Amino acid sequence: MSNPVCAPAPSSRWLLPVLALLSAVAPLATDMYLPSLPRMAHDLGTSASGIQLTLTAFLAGVASGQLVIGPLSDGMGRRRPLLVGTVLCLLASIACALSGGVEMLIAARFLQGFSGGAGVVLARAIIADTSSGATAAKRMSLMMVIGGLAPVLAPLIGGLVASVAGWRAVMWVIVALVALMYMGVLLVVGETLPASARQGGGLRGMLGNAGKVLGTPRYVGFALTMVFAFAAMFSYISASPFVLQNVIGLSEKQYTIAFGCNALGLMLGNIVNVRLAGKVAPRRLLSIGVSGLLLMTTVLMVLALAGMPRWPALLALWLVMPCLGLTYGNAVALALAEVRAHAGAGSAFIGTFQFLGGALVAPLVGLGGDHDARPMAFTMLLLAGCAAIALFRTLRLRDA
Predict the structure, then answer these.
(1) pLDDT digits 0-9 by tens, 175-207
(2) Are the beta carbons of 95 and 146 closer than 8 angstroms?
(3) For the chain, how long is the longest CA-to-CA vector?
(4) pLDDT tens digits for 292-314?
(5) How far lies 280's CA from each of 56, 127, 272, 326, in Å?
């Protein structure tokens, strides 16, 4: 019997694009202003590490927001928390645009991330509600392909807008995009979790579900694979304005193009994953992605020790991205398949530790100053190694 509270049939073809837009709040709210970070640091009278705290605050907000909103949705359903979170994200985005100093901007970015976490966590939960196995992996990757336009277009748009009207105008563009997200939720996204399938929600329910979710070894292993891989990518994202411009010597325009090309590499990995889903087991695709990530970050570390020669370094950074594309969708789908009865909580824990990891590495990669690529390369290699350990230990558990 169909669920009467699901989105109407005419809107169903728009569901995946809307979910992709919701899950893209993080790259939209970070990548769009990345080209402006050096200018923002100068205008606000702070250091590279100081302005990177706006990234840390946003990611910490996304992490904690998911931890609250995901379990709540297991008891309340998906649609209501999604609507409320998107409205609050819109208000926080306006506060970012109006911030008068770096302290206010850091606070507003935290609130923006906390409320925006609703879209990130619930987009994954909605897919887990409606599909499983290879189909879920394919939909996760397809959502990432659509959402992958965000990191391609965001720095291009952000760089163009900043060059014409300054970095505050970039913040107002983000406000407009969040308003579009709200309209998408209002018009397209129906309820995918019927009352009969809901678990205990709220903070008390979260504590009860946490033991079940975190007590599932294969869920934990696949989730950690995703978390470590994402943190490796965010090491690159947070350090890239300084490494690519100050170390490798790219101009602001060249940096924007290079960042967009790398985002296309991430999309390519997801497209390959979509095409191979159902033909190659998700576990095998995930193993290939993580192995490639470990190999390419090793190459990048060698290049960093050699002074980051321009073209070899740019090529190595690009080759990291398709490996991540093969990693994300498969790791998330395999993890959530282990805890389908608690998809909201399962998605929340993945997202919480994913963005918390990103928040922690953002200031670390700047500790060597804004003219040293070695902290970024070392951090990426370390995290890729952790992802490989988590995955291959989990695969042995599965085969035991």
Answers:
(1) 998 999 899 888 888 787 777 777 655 556 666
(2) no
(3) 63
(4) 999 999 999 999 999 999 999 99
(5) 37, 20, 11, 12
Beta strand ranges found along the chain (DSSP E): none
What digits encode the pLDDT tens for the residues 360-379? 887 777 676 677 889 999 99
Give the C-alpha distances (Å, rounded to integers) separating 57 from 96, 112, 169.
Answer: 12, 9, 20
**CA–CA dist 28, 30 (Å, integer):** 6
Backbone angles phi, psi at 277, to 5 degrees: -60, 130
Decide if 335 contacts 223 (C-beta within 8 A). yes
Residue where the block lists tokens 């033991």 = 211
| pTM passes above 0.85 | no
Q: What is the residue whose two structure tokens read 């277009």? A: 153
CB 292 within 8 A of CB 322: yes
Q: How far apart are CA 286 and CA 330, in angstroms?
A: 6
| Cα–Cα distance measured from residue 62 to residue 90, given in angstroms and rounded to the nearest whole number | 14
First to last CA, the chain: 38
CA nearest 108: which of 171, 17, 185, 155? 171
**169-177 CB contacts, 8 Å cutoff, 24+ apart:** 170/32, 170/33, 170/36, 171/33, 171/93, 171/96, 171/97, 172/97, 173/32, 174/28, 174/29, 174/32, 174/33, 174/93, 174/96, 174/97, 175/90, 175/93, 175/94, 175/97, 177/21, 177/28
For residue 294, give the 3-state DSSP assignment.
Answer: helix
Residue 311's CB: how many other CB atoms inside 10 A?
Answer: 8
CA nearest 55: which of 362, 364, 380, 369? Answer: 362
